[in-house]
Amino acid sequence: MLLDIDQDRLIALARELIAAGGENPGGSEERTVQVLHRALADLGATVQLHEVAPGRPNLVAHLGGGNAGGGLLFLGHSDVVPAGAGWDADAFTPRVQQGRLIGRGATDMKGGLAAVIAAMAAINSHAPQIPLTLVCTVDEEADAAGIGHYVQRAPAGSYTGCVVAEPTDLVAIVGCRGAANLRVRITGASAHAGRPADGASAIQAAAELVSLLNRDSLLLAAAPHPVLGAATWNVGTLSAGHGTSIVPDTAILGIDRRLLPGEEAREVLDDLLDRARQAIERSEIAGSERISLSGEVEMQMPGFVTEPEAGFTRTVRHAAREAGASGDYGIWTASCEGGFIAEHHAVPTVVLGPGEINTQAHQPNESVSVNDLGTAARAYALIALRHHEAQRQPEAQSD
Question: Cβ-count burial of 208 within 10 angstroms (0-12 exposed, 13-18 middle, 19+ buried)?
C-alpha cells in the first residue's frame, strides 16, 4: 500500500494548492478549496461545501466506507498568512530547490493537505471499506470563523480519532494550550497637555494594566499545568491617544491569553477587568475615578490533551515511525483547531504534519522538505489502516 503514494502527484497537488493563494487577511480561500474539491472528487469522495462567508467555504469530504462519514478524521485549513516582504521570488509561484518545496503555505499547511489527500487515495485503493473524512476550514489564521461554523452545525460524535495535519516536523503533538484574543478598551478624559490634571489619561491606565499582566505572568509561571505548562499573557497591540498635546481619552489593547484546561476566556477577561479597575483606583493617576474599562473576547480556541500512552497516540506514533519519522511525541506552545474537534466530537486528537512551525511557517521563503511530504503521506495512510484495525479488534473478539 505504501507504494501507492505517488510522490510526483503529491508534489504537483501541493504546488497547485500553494499557487491558489488564500491570504488571510486580504484574500479568499475559495481557489484553494476548488483545488481540494477537484482532487477529492477525482478519488470518488463525497464533498460538501459550507459557506462561512462569501467566497470562504469550509470543505467536508468523506471517502470509503460507503462515503457515509465516520472513522478517522483529518483536519486542516485552507488559508495562509499574508506573503509579506523578503521573498527571493514570488511567494505564490511554487518551486522546488535542493529538495524543498518553496512557497507561502508550503509548510502551513498546503503540504500537509496534499499529503492527507495522497494518503486517502492510497487507503481507498487498498482498502475502500475504511471510512475517512477530511475537514478543511477557512479563517484559521485569523479569527477561527471556519471551525466555529463547523462545530455549530456538525453532529457531535461520529468519529473515532482526529489527526490535525499542521506542521510538527512529523512529531506527534499530544496537547496544546487553548488561546484567546481579548480586546480591552480604556476610556478616560481628554484635556490640554498644559493641565494634565484636568483629564484622566487612558495611556497611564493602560500602563497599570500592563504592569498587572506582568505580575500575573509570574504567578501563572509558578503554577504550570503538569503536561501543558503555564498559561501566559501577551499584549500584542496598543492604540491610544490623539496627539502629544492632548491627554489621551482612549486606549485599546489587543491581548493574547494562552488558556489551560478548565479556563474560559470570558471568565479570564472579567477577572482581569475587575483587578485592573482596582489597580487603577489605587494608582496615582489624575482623575482615576473617571476611567472606565470594558472588554470583549474576539476569539477563543480550546486546548486539548491526549494521553501519550493512549491507544490512539500509540497508533499514530508507531505508524509515523513505520513510515520513516521518529515516532516521538511532544507538546505544542502554539494552539490549533484540534481542540475544537477534541471537545466537539469527544475524540482523541493528535497533531502531526510535515514542516516546522517555528523556523518555516509564516517566514519569507517558507518551504517544506519534499521527502517529508512523502513521509507524512505514508504516515497518514498507515495511521488510517492501523487505527481501523484497532477499532475492529473488539468486534473480532466478540464474534
Answer: buried
